[in-house]
Amino acid sequence: MSGVSTLEAPAILTERLDLVPLHVEHAEEMAAVLSDPALHMFIGGTPDTPQALRSRYRRMTAGSPDPGVSWLNWVIRLRAESCLTGTVQATVTPTRHGTVAEIAWVVGTPWQGRGIAGEAAQGLVAWLGRQPVHTVIAHIHPDHRASAAVATAAGLTPTDVWHDGEIRWLRDIGR
């Protein structure tokens, strides 16, 4: 396996967004942002209560139990409205083929269709490109056209690999 030290999530700034490292204190506002059951159409489940989200954020911010794996999580703040609009995340894992970052994103329903997820994903992938990461992947439901557009904007392309009913998208950063 390729050796990489554990990464920490810094603040990442894009044209309109601040990707702010996730804290447990974000749970209350994020519970409202993520409260639309329609957000779970492709991923399953139901919206979390603020208490459940606090508990999940506590686990996430504690980090991976595997010291070689980095759990990196951000909330997306739309600067012009000074509000949280969603999240982006990356799980960075060393493999024998190089370091892989698996990314994901979600933007609350009121802010969808404004390019926020695409801008956040592009900012995240640009930051990952400056880290010792070789490959960026995302798993996207084949019917989720909006997420496919976000992945495309971030430079990922679909592969023939399926994982739990989703298509693996990939961007080889190469080192």
Please specify the SSE layout and strand pairing.
Layout lengths: L11 E2 L3 E5 L5 H7 L16 H13 L7 E9 L4 E13 L2 E10 L8 H14 L5 E6 L4 H9 L3 E7 L2 E7 L3
Helix pairs in contact: 1-2, 3-4
Fold and architecture overview:
The protein is 25% helix and 34% strand. It has 175 residues and is an alpha+beta fold.
Rg: 15 Å
Classify the secondary structure makeup into a structural class: alpha+beta
**Distance linking N and C termini:** 15 Å
Describe the sheet with the most strands.
Answer: 8 strands, mixed
Order of helices and strands: EEHHEEEHEHEE
Strand content: 25-35%
Enumerate how many helices there are, as a single number: 4
The CATH homologous superfamily is called: Gcn5-related N-acetyltransferase (GNAT)
What is the class in the CATH system?
A: Alpha Beta
Question: Characteristics of this structure?
Answer:
175 residues, alpha+beta, 4 helices, globular
Describe the structure concisely:
The protein is α+β, with helices and mostly antiparallel strands.
